[in-house]
Amino acid sequence: MIAYNYCYSTCLGRVVDFKGQNKFGVTELRQPAGLLNTLKEHINVSPNGMIFVNQDVRKGLLARMLTELLNTRVMVKQAMKGVRDDKALQRVLDARQLSLKFIANVTYGYTSATYSGRMPAVEIADAIVQSGRETLEKASRIQLRAYTTFSHPRYQAIRVIDSTQRWGAKVVYGDTDSLFIYLSGKTKDQAFRIGHDIADTITALNPAPIKLKFEKVYLGCVLMAKKRYVGFKYENPDDQDPVFDAKGIETVRRDGIPAQQKMVETCLKILFRTQDLSQVKDYCCTTWAQILENKASIQDFIFSKEVRLGTYSDRGPPPPGAAVAARRLAEDPNDEAQYGDRIPYVIIREGPTRLVDRAVAPEGILNDSHKHLDAVYYITRVLIPPLERIFNLVGADVRSWYEEMPKALRVDDKDALMFSPRKAQRQAALASRFQIDEHFLSSHCLTCGVLTDDYVCDDCRFQPQETISRILALMRRTEKQLTDVQLVCATCSGTPTTEPIHCESLDCPWLFERKKVEHRTEGLETIQDIVDDLQYYVDEFADSEGNFEIVEDDLQEEVEEEVLLEYEDSEDDELEYL
After folding, report:
1. Disulfide engineering: 260 pairs with which of 31, 45, 256, 421, CB 3.0-4.6 Å?
2. Taking the CA of residue 39 as centre, how many other CA atoms within 13 Å lie in the half-sphere pointing to its CB?
3. pTM to 2 decimals?
4. CA-to-CA distance for 320 and 384, rounded, in angstroms?
5. Domain C4-type zinc-finger of DNA polymerase delta, which positions (predicted)?
6. How many CB atoms lie within 10 A of CB 381?
């Protein structure tokens, strides 16, 4: 806009009428006869056929404004370099230069705003965007040496770069005002040297103040699609540690989940640092195993998508977020989501039901220890697809990594201390009906962790004193964890330690840690009953020195008899299950 003086105040209309009209914005623009002949040496014709006078006749208002904005932004960025140690001031200055950049960028949009704008002029907007495109993309068959005498005012960058042998460069991507240039086999230092040479050459071939600025080198880069790329960025040749720079992919998008962002970013960093897909595969399989075993934080699996109630069709189910918002509204008419609000929700494991029926608010899974994340859904539908889009480019089949890995769905957690033996068995039965073909069910002894069908294995049962000591230590550790977490939350929220904590901030990781520990301590009374039972056998059958006076077979019969008596006292439905 500055170089070609595009402005409302410098436009002279069209070279040739369009459909018999010479429209300019919402009006007609016709020049007096003979004006073009008078100014023919001082005009500039844009690619869309609009005529503008040069700056030596009249400098446009838009050009003046943009010049001041850009000069001010340059001064702010120069000031940033002098305060590298003051991080707070750097953030303030960075926000200011970014604001100036946005103002300059939306100037083009202001000229094309036909619905909400005060001065719509599509002709100026078309001239701007077509001139930028022509500068970058229009092909020319002449070599670089001929460009110095080429009379056309818009020199073309792509063909110059591709046709210059000494650079060995190839343009692989070009956006509105930027180019990505591939330098095969070059080092980082060579890339910086060639990049500056290219920028200086192209800048010299274009009228001021059009400038091709060399910004950065990507050493390790993935170009996925238009406006979707990621790489390790170096801005100076002396930079030793690269910066992870991503545009348009899941690591910077808000419609996914934190686990998706973390996993994609970590996988890309491993790939860029090692170029070893086997390490990427190991990380993926380890992460998926933790998710399947319920060892991941719920906070990393919360969706937060925009909801627009009243705009969804009745022909099909609404999006999960809209369903959660509708349930909240049904429970409390005052809790209505505003148009465009982001509603948090998670997907739980609840049998073969619709996705919309398995979407619940995070509070629902935090306050109910019987609800669990749908690990298979999150892995196969949320985590794997973005990884496939990236690693399929290098020939890796990410989905086969998951399908071939051994899977274990944990029925219970030996550190949970939350289920009675009967409840744990019932959950195991429910889990067995949930995708038994995909998973192996496992239940572990509370003390030693070996596989067992009961809460305590046979070896630990016949060593009751040592088992009691281990269980009591586990209980004390859990109680201390709860006390420590509650102290953190009470201190943060200003709540006395003797009162319940009502904080429910989903942005705080301590909320999820506190709920997790509270779930672990729900069954401490049941675990105490187990300890009492073991202590009973110690008191009944051990002598003064702690030695048992009966053989293990007798003790086993006594245990079985006690269990049978417990079953007989059960309710009818539970007895039928047992």
Report:
1. 256
2. 20
3. 0.71
4. 20
5. 445-514
6. 12
Q: Hey, which residues does 246 pair with through a beta bridge?
A: 230
Residue 424 — very low, low, confident or very high, per pLDDT cuts 50/70/90? Answer: very low
Closest-CA residue to 402 (of 417, 380, 418)? 380
DSSP 423-486: HHHHHHHHHHHSSTTT-EEE-B-TTT--B-SSSS-HHHHT-HHHHHHHHHHHHHHHHHHHHHHH
More confident: 560 or 487: 487
Domain at 269-410, CATH homologous superfamily: B family DNA polymerase, thumb domain (1.10.132.60)
List phi, psi (to 5°) of 339.
-60, 125
Instruction: Please give the single-letter amino acid code of residue 541.
Output: F
Q: Which residue has the higher pLDDT, 5 or 143?
A: 5
Cα(230)–Cα(218) distance, integer angstroms: 9
CATH T-level assignment (fold) for domain 8-132: Helix Hairpins (1.10.287)
Range picked from 25-34, 410-419, 425-434 for highest mean pLDDT: 25-34
Q: Are the C-beta atoms of 303 and 321 separated by less than 8 Å? A: yes
Residue 431 is encoded by which pair of tokens?
Answer: 């889990």
Architecture of the CATH domain 133-247: Alpha-Beta Complex (3.90)
Q: Would you place residue 549 in the very low, low, confident or very high pLDDT band (cuts 50, 70, 90)? A: low
Residue 2's DSSP bridge partners are: none
